[in-house]
Structures are given as C-alpha cells and as structure tokens.
## 1
Amino acid sequence: MINSLTNRREELFPGKIIEHKQEENKFYFSSANEVTLLVQVLTSRIIRFRYSPDGYFPPDFSYAIDPDFKPEPPKVEFTQKPDSFQLTTELVVCIIQKEGLQIKILDKSGNVINEDEKGYHWEYDLQTGNNTVKMSKWVQSGEHYYGLGDKSCNMNLRGRRLQNWGSDTYGYSRNSDPLYKSIPFYFGLHQKTAYGIFFDNTFRTYFDFAHERSNLTSFWAHGEEMNYYFFYGPGLTEVAEQYALLTGRSAMPPLWALGYQQCKWSYYPESTFKGIAREFRERQIPCDALYLDIDYMDGFRCFTWNKEYFPDPKRMISELAADGFKTVVIIDPGIKIDKNYRVYQEGFQNGYFCRRGDGPYMKGSVWPGLCHFPDYTHPVVREWWADLFEELITVDGVRGVWNDMNEPAVFEQGTFPDDVRFDYDGNPCSHRKAHNIYGMQMARATYMGVKKFCYPNRPLVITRSAFSGTQRFSSTWTGDNVASWDHLWMANIQCQRLSISGMSFVGSDIGGFIETPTGELYIRWLQLGIFHPFCRTHSSGDHGDQEPWSFGPEYTLLAKKFIELRYRLLPYIYTTFWQYVTFGTPMLRPLTFMAQDDTETYHRMAEFGLGDNFLICPITQAEVDGRWLYLPHGTWYYFWDNTIYIGGKEVWAQAPLDRIPFFIRAGSVVPFYPLMQYVGEKEITELTLNLYYTEGSFTSTLYDDGGDGYAYEKGIFTERKFIVTGTQVSLTVSQEIKGAFEPTYTTYKIILHGLPFGPETIRIDGEPLLLDTVVDPELDFEPESQNEKFPVIYVRRDFKTLNIQGIASDPMLPEPEMA
Ligand code: MIG
C-alpha cells in the first residue's frame, strides 16, 4: 500500500486468528503465522492496540504515557461470531476480523467510527533489523483530520502527508515539515463525531491523511511496534481530554509565568539587562520575567557565568527580584569538551554522555564548540542533571529554565548520527528510536531540578523540542519564526494545534525571531500573543530592538494597552489553565472544537476560543481596520464596545490597530485583576467581575489558589461557579463555592454589561442593596467609551444569591447595540 517508502521489499500480513485468550481487560488474538494482537480496553472510550509480528511482546515501556494514568478496568463484553470477535464497552463496539485482524470500531448506534483497510502489516528492514510497522484505515465519508502538534500547515490535515522527526528548523515556513516537536496523535471527525488515534512510537513516524490515495489514511514507523490508542469522543474536546488523561497534564504554573515575558538573543552585559528592567517600570509596562540567552555563560558552558558581563549574578538577580522580575536562563544540552570544566569532567568520568555505536563518546559541534551530550534517557543522568541546577537556583536566584537545541540539534550534521546509543531507561537503543524523545527527557531532567530547588515555589521550564507527554514537565514555544504576516498567521495555527495536542502552555516569539517587524506587525502579533498561555517577546537581536517601546511612541502606547489587558485577564487565564490541569481541556480551542455541530466551522481556522467564554480572531494582514470572521452560535459581546452579535454566521469585526477581534460570550462572568506591573505587586482587595447579561442561564468558573506553592494539591484552592440567569426584567447570580482557599480580596465589584432593563431593586442574600453607576476607569480601553456609564454593584465575596429586579428600559442606561 504505502508507496515511496525506502526500498521495495516484501509486505507481510497477519494470518487467520487461531487462538485467543483474555486476561482481565486484555484480549490476545494469535494468528496462524504467529502474529499477536493485544487489545487492551483501558476505559469505556480508550482502547489500546498492540501488534507483535512473532508472538513476542518486549517489556511494555513508554515515555509518553503518564505514570499516574491508572484507570479502573471498565466493563467489557466479549463475544464471538463465525468471522469475528467483538468487544463491547459502555460507549463503543470493537470488531476484530478473524481473517487478517482488521479492526472496526462503531458507536452504540452502529455508526462506523474508524475502520481498517489492510490494517496492520509490516516490512522487515534488513539494514537495521527493524520492522517498518504500518497501519492503514479507510477514510470515512466527509472525514476531516486535525492534530499532530507542531505543524505549520492548515488546521485540517486532510490531503497531507506529514512526519515526526524533531528538527531545528530556523526560519521554517508554512507547510515546512517536520518541525521541532513530535506528537504522533491525530483527530478524525466525520458525521459530527470525533475520535482520536495516538501512535505511541518514538521512531520517525509518518501520517498520510488521504494524500496518496484519497480513500486511505495510514501511519507507519521505521521501527518498534504498531502500538496505538484509540479514543472515542464523540466531542473533539473530549478526545483531547482523553489524550491528555493518557499522556498527562502540566501542574499549575506559578501565576507570574502567565504574565508578560521579555527575551532577546541576547541581553548583556548586566547594565543592558537591568536597563531593560528599568525601562519597563519607568514606562509602566507590566512585565514579570526577563530572559538570559546563551551569552550569559562563560564560553557557552552550561551552568557557568560570563563574569565580565555578569560579575555578580546573585546580586543582580536579587535586585531584579526586588523590582518584581523573575530571571529565566537558557540551558542547552551540548557540554563543552574542556578538561577544566566541572560539568564536562563529571559527565566524562561517570559515563553520562551518549556513545557512538562502537564505544567512544559522541562528539558534535554546537555553540560552545565540540561537545558531548548527556544521555537523558538514563535515570542516573537525569538525577545528575537535575542537581546541576542547585547553584543557579538556590544561590543565584534563577526562577525558570529554558531548554533549547534539544531536538537534538548539531551544527552541520543536523542531529546525532543514527548509531549513537541510549539507555532508554533500561531498553538500550540507537538514536533512531531515542531521537524524538531526547528533548523531552532533557526537559524532564531540567524540570526535576528546577522543581526541587525552587521549592516551595513552582518551577517554570520551557522547551523547544518535545514528544507526546512533555506537557507534564514543560511549557513550549514554536521556535525560530520570522517577523512576517505569514508567520503571524502560522503562530495562530501552531499554538491552537499544540494546544489540542496536549500542550496548552504554548506561545510564539511575539514579533518574530528572525528579522524585524514593523510597529504595526508587532502590535498585531502582541494582540494575539496576550491570548496565548505563554506570552513572550523574543527576537534574534540581529536586526534591531524588539521591546514594546522599540517602534515609536504611538506603538508603545498600544503595546502597553495590550500587555495591561493581559494582566487584567490573568484570573480568567489562570482559571482556564486550571481546567487544563484538571480535565485536560485544551486552553486554546479551534473554532471546530467550539462548535463541532456546525459544519461551517470545519472550513475556518483563524478564529479560536481561549477558555470557556472568549472568542478571538487575529488580524494577520497589514493596513486593515477589521475583518470578517465566523462567530459560533450563541450571543456574543464585542469586548471593545459591547455591541451584541448573534453567532452562527459571519460577522465583520471593526478592529483598527488599537483592537483585536475579541468577543465575550453572553452570560459569562469574567474576572479582572486590577492593573499591576507584575504578579504580586499589590495585594488584591477587590476583584472585578464583568457580568455580561444573557437571557437564559449560563455558568462561569473562577479558580484561585494564590498563584504559587503546592497547597492547592491538598485542596487549598477555591472553585467558584457563577450561575447567571436573565429575563427581560430580572437578573439572578448565584455563587457556588468549593474548596478551602481564602483569597486576599473580600469584595467583588460587579460591572453589569448589556442589562436590557433599569434595575429597581437589588437584593443580596435577601437584603436590599444600592446600585452605583460608574464611569469605569478599568474598562477604559477605548476613548469613545469614556463617557459610558456602567451599573456597578459592590458585594461581599462569598455571597450566595444576587437578585436584580427591574423596569423595562431605563433611559439612564446605555441601550445595548445590536449588530
Ligand atoms: O542556534 O540561543 O530557538 O530562541 O535565541 C540558535 C540562541 C540557538 C535557537 C532558539 C532561539 C535562541 C537561539 N537558539
């Protein structure tokens, strides 16, 4: 079937099943030619398929699967028919053909969700001794495909062939493939029903979505097993959640890591670095983190300082900390070959570096010159690596670590030679198998160290390369992009795609890494960046400055306005992060994920949701003052002027350079922090809640745990639900509170948007209350809105029920405008 593989060899297929056995939720089927299929029913909607060509399964080992994923085995009914076996769970039916082992999965109404064409087959590779393992499936009528993590092409993958082989792709472009990360997980969607497939194989993997043959989708790898997980939705979001349950979620980040971050290659010496900090505070542009790129090191030796540039890092970092800045430093995998360098000596003497096939340590050239590279797939090496962070963190005061070049990247050669050996946690192998998880294991070892030494504070790790599951250890960014409009378009798609592929803590280099953006492009990019979980400006520095104030006063003001908006939105973004941590829900939600029942959304990809209640659509074109976009069904408020839009259709969003198309779902309660220059600058005594009136009922969530530390793991957090119910003449808000955390704020300032009536009586838990009408300075993003008055109510934090009764239409209040 799959053409354009390596040499033409013989394709091998399973024979007829002659034996089967069951061990709890594991079902083994063996064929006449010794092929064995192991079907493991993990939950009612997650089924694993593992194939052995010779009846032998090597020890079960995966870096991707979350060790904490231990679901109770579900109920499975097993039946046999003349031609097939059948496994039935509460949600799906899985049919296994006796002749050929093809799989067919149906939902309980009998709709085919996924069906093998040839199914499992393989080729033996004489050269390496591996099997090229293959799987082919029918394309279902009207099927669309999504996912695969780090890809810069259109959202819908139908018609494409893509591969996973982590690569350092400086200045990549639309459709470049592969990029830095390897996430062999995709979604299928047809008849409004979604499923997912995760091919847990770390070799170079390929996915063909109706590309070679329009009726066929297939995936294969040049080694290891055909070993994949099937997830049943039926919702796309549910599929993403199932995948995140299996491969894990991030822990809660420190709240400051959701603030604005500023980076450049490179800020040095100390006076320059501190100058950047000073400028942020003088200009009152909020910022939480500053980054040191490779030049802070002594000759690019990891865990050292260039003492000429940074004579006293501990003093410098503590001075920055006193002003609210966290310092994050880069650490690459290449360890300079230098007999006088401690890290090199320890690695060399203890055998911690990767070896070539014939024994010597592998050498490769990167920034420091010739280097050896730690084998992070060895548990002892990871421990050693983790401990190397002690001084940087406990003495110098570094609060986060940035892992780069971990695809792994090597100058000239690209990456390691194939014969390089790895421990692979006791399953020794070559680079062919370890390549795609090298960066992940580096990030894991880094995380262990940063977490250990930052305690009781939470760590921040950011990595360029990743494999499925890396989200358990690290955030990520999309690598070396370019300051162009096309790259802004890509940043939007890449971040959405990484988010649905398990990695929600994601952002792009705002403004572009290579070359310089115009002021306009920088602002348009920042407008998108403030809605990405990871929000950092970074640039190569070769082409001029890229700070929020680098483009002239007019743009500086705009940059400040959008970074300020980011800080106002922090409690909402933090709540969205908590949903991701708790349920695996992607933070960024492609339009199709928001409205899977609406097939119009299948053809659009610029619009996305952040959390439950926001819809954003970036402007990715020069010199325009708005754009057409598709609003999913429901009622929406345009953030900038409160115009009310009815979704389920295309609308025009007026967005000159001081706006990004940003809509808020009617009925939602959006928490706002007061303006701060950095997280923790002020004690928050009052939390603003922006309530967007709706007719009918809608529930919003607010999570809080103080933003750092680990008490939340012991239940010291609060989850608040605001249930808003509106009629033409009344509005009721009930609050449900779970958890034991005591926030610093004791009152809510509730700002009412879009009330269709004039409030007459207000009762809070039965008692009467007065209404204020304010010109709300906190919402003054728009000069036009300065004179607009919003009704405001101040209530105690733990109220249970707020009730407003009104008289229809009060001339005192702004009429909601309908678009
Ligand atoms: O070969 O550390 O993607 O963010 O600034 C370039 C220097 C190495 C690549 C990263 C980029 C970083 C740069 N690095």
Note: The longest helix spans residues 431-454.
## 2
Amino acid sequence: MYPFSFTKATSTREALDAGLRGGRYIAGGTTLVDLMRETVERPETLVDISALPLRQVSATKSGGLRIGALVRMAEAAAHRAVRTAYPVISQALELSASAQLRNMATIGGNIMQRTRCTYFRDVTAACNKREPGSGCAALHGYNRGHAILGTSDQCVATHPSDLAVALAALEATVHLLGPDGERTVPFAGFLLQPGSTPNREQAIRPGELITAVEIPAHPRPLRSGYLKVRDRQSYEFALTSAAVALHIRGGVIRGAKVAAGGVGTVPWKLPAVERHLIGERPSDRLWAEAAEHAADGARPLRHNGFKVELLKRTVERQLSTVGGTK
Ligand code: SF4
C-alpha cells in the first residue's frame, strides 16, 4: 500500500466539494481497496460517503422502485419490495460475490466495479484500460473469460456485475448528483463500451455521486429471474448469465425484457430476443427460436468461442424457467 489521505463526509455537500477537489468516493470499499493494494488504482484522497442518507428503498410515484446508492447488496436482495416486484434483482444479487462481501458492498459501488480481467489487475501486463495506449495483453493472451460482444481492438474485458445485467434488462435509470445539480442517465447509456477509450467506463462527470438506481414501473403481472452459469457454484463470476422479465396475460407474451451477462463489455441487452417473444404464446419451441438471436453480432476470441452456444442455451433455459413451460 502507499500513503493516501482519508476524509469522512458528513453531508452530501461536503462529499461533493471533496469529490470536485479530486477525492475518490468510497463506501463498502470491496473493489477499490483491493485495487489500491495491487496499485492498479492510486487515488491520493479517499472520501468516505457511507454516512450519507442514501440507504432507502422506496416506491416511486409512477409505481417503480428506487434503491439508494448506499443500500448494501444483502439489504437490497432481502428487501420485501425488491423480492416481490423484481425477483430478478434479488437473485442477481444473491448469486454475486460472497455473503461477507454482500454485507459490505453497496448498490452504487456494485455498478461502478471494474473488470476482473487478470491482465488489468497485473500491473506488469499491457492494458489499455489501466494505461491508455499500452496495448491489450488479453487480445492474444488467455481470453477464455473475456467478452464476445461489444469488444474493440483496444479492450475485450467483460463487465463483472450481475446486478447490472438485471438493471439493464429492466431498463433502469441511474440518479446522479453533481455540482450542477441532479440528473438521470438511462442504464443503457451509463456503462460505456470500450471503443477507443477503454479507460472511460461510465458516463459520470468529475465529482458526480450516484444517489440511486430507479427501476421503472412495468406492466403486471411480471415474472422475472436470473440465471448465472459459472465454473463453480459460488463466489465466481459469470461465464454467461441471463436476466429475464416477462409480462404474460391471456396466455400471450405482452412484454419481454432480456439481457445477458458474462459475454459483453457492458451488460448486453437482447432486443432481437425480446422482439421474437412479443405477441407469441409461451412454448419450448418459442424459447429455443428466440434464444437463437442471443449471440447476434458475437465476435469470439481464441479461447472463448464456447460462449456463443452457452449464451444461447443460458437464455433459452431462463426464458423457459420464467415463462413457465418447464
Ligand atoms: Fe486491459 Fe481490457 Fe485488455 Fe483486459 S481486455 S488487458 S482490461 S485492455
């Protein structure tokens, strides 16, 4: 570790002032402290925001749900309103990390977490995300766990968050507070694909603070769930995952929200799969046909071609589970 200063914000104003002076926000610290130990990140000032009043889960006027940025992952997963209305969120959270980490890590920190690409975390390896212009060791290295969608010739790292996949499927928005006031960003535009600037990962401005994520109201009844496929059954990141929410009324699918994880440089929404489902009656054949579109546009690397078929099967399985034909 290296020397750094630490300050605890007692108000949002205090936090924003410190953030504008270059301070780095920290809450649960479950990602940032690891990265600092490995000297992948070297912030000079940490601003502890854990005392700020951002720890509520509440219904919105329009019938959606707002989850404060400092709600712990375990709290959100267990919250009655989340479990009842959006099981896909509870399941994504419960399948993440370990119980200890879920008790510390926050919702805001979860969506800000950085990639698990091993080259990114190895300061001796070339990595455009860590050091722009240095190259990408994963492109011609061992890339079994890397992305097949949304990649560029600069970076092929996956986004690691399960929660983010559920939020992408449900078309959530991110609430931000900065020196110019509040603003909201659709989740689809919050996490950025690498393109030619893989070091820029979120559409967040200097000094801005995430205050909440909001899930919009969806037509009821809404069935939803999350499936995660990984090399071992716990404390592991996804090889592939699928977040599915279906609105079925009168035996017909009226609404479908589907996103995939473990395969994209950002959580990967699957509009072609969604379109294939709308207006149809649930059946095993429908799930299989829709899932054929899950890997549209995929560009596998040397070691991760298996993800194309695995992704289709993951999506098919989860459509079938949520859609009720299994
Ligand atoms: Fe770095 Fe991205 Fe390449 Fe990994 S895939 S080494 S994070 S540039």
Note: DSSP finds twelve helices and twelve strands in the chain.
